[in-house]
Design a protein that fits this description.
Structural class: alpha+beta
Number of strands: 3
Number of domains: 1
Radius of gyration: 17 Å
Strand content: 25-35%
Strand order of the largest sheet: 1-2-3
Largest sheet: 3 strands, antiparallel
Order of helices and strands: EEEH
């Protein structure tokens, strides 16, 4: 999933996508989604490493609602421009 301007919803840094990994829950009865966001950071020697921010499911649902609303509004606006 692409986020607007590739900004992490947790820490606000630039990074890469919103990735999902399916992990077995604690009771080992079903798989649940585990969302994370990647950042490039330099270590003490100047080499780039990946830092991961783990995103809560509630935050992911909020992001999905926002992006679907934006897409709907864009489609409506494009339709209104075609009518003119």
């Amino acid at each position: 999933m692409r986020l607007k301007d590739n900004i992490c919803p947790r820490c606000g840094e630039k990074g890469y996508g919103l990735f999902v990994k399916w992990v077995l829950n604690a009771a080992k009865t079903r798989y649940e989604p585990y969302y994370y966001f990647a950042h490039r950071v330099k270590d003490e020697y100047g080499y780039a490493k990946l830092k991961w921010c783990y995103i809560k499911l509630a935050k992911v649902k909020e992001i999905l609602k926002e992006t679907s609303k934006e897409a709907t509004n864009e489609a409506i606006n494009e339709g209104n421009e075609d009518d003119k």
